[in-house]
Amino acid sequence: MSDHALRLLREQPRLAELAAFPFNFDLARADHGEAVRLASGGPLEAVAGDDTGGTYFVCGDGSVLYADSEGSAGIIGNSVDEALEVLVGLPGWHDYLGLAPADGEEKIRAAVAETEEEIREYHGIDDERTELRAGLGLPERSSVELIGQLHAALLRTEPDFLLLNAEEGGAHDLLDRHPRPPLWEAVLARGRTDLTLLREGSAWDEVAGDRARRALALRAAQFDRREGDLPLLRHLLRHEAEASMTDELRLAAVLVGLHGHAEDLPLLYEVRETDFDTWCGLGGMPEPGADPAELRSWAHGLDDSLFGTDPADEPLFTWTGLAHEQGLVELARAALIRRLGDIDFRAYRDARDSKAMERRDASQLSPLVHEFEQLGDTFQALRAQRMYVPLQTRAWDRVSALLRLARLEREEGRFGAAIRTLTSLRDTLAEPDGGACIGDSDSGSGSDNSLGHWQRTNLGAYIVEEHYAIARTAATDTALADEVRAVTVAAGELLARLSGTARANVERHLAGTTDTHTDTYTDTHTKISTDIHTDTGANPDADLSAEPTPPQPSAG
Questions:
Q1: Residue 437: its pLDDT value, please?
Q2: 160: helix, coil or strand?
Q3: pLDDT the model gives residue 554
Q4: 266 CB contacts (<8 Å, ≥6 apart)?
Q5: Would you call 4 helix, strand, or coil by DSSP?
Q6: How far from each other are the two terminal CA atoms of the chain, in whole angstroms?
Q7: What is the C-alpha separation between 163 and 186, in angstroms, rounded?
Q8: Distance between CA atoms of residues 484 and 475, nearest Å
């Protein structure tokens, strides 16, 4: 990392003047015009701009990120010094974003010569380049070398330097269009290495005993199947069973079953009987003593429907989950943000054309929310949940989606928005048919009865607890005093409507938190504990989209 050149530009007006013209690195233009941030949350400092509205940012490791005025961004140097080498040595660098070393010296030199001749028709660059290089201590490099330097820098943009609109969360496009390796290739790299070790007879316990390494090795074996792998697959299967039901456990069972050895049936049966989840997840498996052909048929059926041999066919969430498990958080985050951006764009286009969102896109929004939350990225989870809420037509689903939205807004500190969301939630409880579409009801009569027993379910308890949680966290915002008071009153009214058991559970939780916390919020009618958490021993987002069938009345 070096900022030697930047210090000289700030100290010597003549050098700063040359950098600004003719090389378009102007310290006086360090204002991008819109708030931006890195998806990773890393530091970002605007240091200069150009006459097209573009901005040069210095990142935490010294890398220089250029963002243009059209919504594209890319790394152009590992430091300000390196970025200035490119800008001074290639004053037409914007025209070379598509060039790569593979294009060859002749093509690169011709492209650079053509652009620089056009520039010279309007102003000089040669004497200015010599003076600025000397003043900043920049080396003189050939155009071919500089193109290679720029190309390598651009390829570093993602995942660590993905630029977002700070308000809306949308990602900038890449500055260049150079091909990148697919996500699965980076994720599988460790698994392929471990699979090689296993095949060599080494590191069996080390790989099998590590959840992330074991999962990756199994995925590598999925796409590189060999007859001699059966012993190591059996070993991985035994260890994966300790994690209960996972996609990789099912994969391991399938890979073992495809070999069609009857002696593996007792092992497979033992794994299936590990617990209730594995018994369900490996349903249909032949019993010990079955014909090997039956075992192969079972394994082929699952393989064809769930797995296969092409990593490009695997769902995105397979790779982002595995990336997260091995610590490649920014790789997972960037891929998920790009997917959400694609869905957002298509949703905008469909809305413009008065079309409904494609079912495939809609079905990915809730998993996206979950994946972002797993990464700790509440901001992007909230963005996805906002798109998900309007798609819910059944009252139960709308309330569940609004509840999750309110929680995410609260966790992001958007208390006013969370309070408004809870108001919409209560409106739906009061008038379930308000947003329902005819034909989507349970009864078929046009009336939505899906919320008929909400007071007797976990959903009701979570609704009440979220009201209390928002009342507590928003109480410090004096501008929301009236809204907080209204939420507090509503919480008490909703609590009174819960069934006996549900109400007792919530009150027990309130009493438990009161024992360990002292913060309170006093309303003119109600005094309640305000240090309330949404977790009551279960996941408040779990199974909220599915109405209990039938609803189980409480003892109260």
A1: 42
A2: coil
A3: 35
A4: 288
A5: helix
A6: 67
A7: 21
A8: 6
Helix (H) or strand (E) holding 520: strand 520-522
Phi-psi region at 111: left, alpha or beta (left = phi > 0; alpha = psi -120 to 50): alpha
Tokens of 420: 């408004």
* Helix axes 4-11 and 13-20, enclosed angle (nearest 10): 110
The H-or-E segment that residue 77 falls in is strand 72-77
Residue (of 292, 268, 290) closest to 281 by Cα position: 268
Q: Is the CB of residue 402 less than 8 Å from the CB of residue 425?
A: yes
DSSP code string of 88-126: HH-TTGGGGTT--GGG-HHHHHHHHHHHHHHHHTTS--H
The DSSP 8-state label assigned to residue 27 in this structure reads G
- For residue 181, say if its preceding peptide bond is cis, omega within 30 degrees of 0: no
Structure tokens at 82: 């390196």
Torsion of CA 74, 76, 81, 82, to 10 degrees: 150
DSSP state of 203: S
Amino acid letter, residue 107:
K
d(C-alpha 3, C-alpha 17), whole Å = 18
Residue-wise burial string across 95-114, b where 16 or more C-beta atoms lie within 10 A, e elsewhere: ebbebbeeeeeeebeebbee
Extract the tokens encoding 134: 């000397």
Structure tokens at 508: 């027990």
Q: What pLDDT sits at residue 508?
A: 86
Q: Which residue has the tokens 């021993």?
A: 537
Q: Length of the chain in residues, anyone?
A: 556
So what's the pLDDT on residue 509?
78
Provide φ and ψ at 76, rounded to 5°: -120, 0
Give CA–CA dist 268/256, Å, rounded: 8
Closest CA to 369 of 377, 358, 360, 361: 377
pLDDT at 2: 61
202: left (phi over 0), alpha (psi -120 to 50) or beta: beta
Per-residue confidence (pLDDT) for residue 510, from 0 to 100:
77
Q: What is the pLDDT of residue 3?
A: 81
| DSSP 8-state secondary structure symbol assigned to residue 231 | H
CB 200 within 8 A of CB 194: no
**Where do the H-state alpha helices sit in 163-282?**
183-199, 204-208, 211-223, 230-240, 247-258, 265-272, 276-281
Geometric angle at alpha carbon 404, from 501 and 212, rounded to 5°: 100
CA dist 141 and 488 (Å) reads: 68
User: Could you count the other beta carbons within 10 Å of the beta carbon of residue 460?
Assistant: 24
| Residues of the chain below pLDDT 70 | 1-2, 435-446, 513-556
Report d(CA 514, CA 60) in Å as an integer. Answer: 43
d(CA 151, CA 539): 46
Model pLDDT, residue 313: 95
**Which neighbouring-strand residues pair with 59?**
44
Identity of the residue numbered 75: I
Token pair in block for residue 482: 């009236």
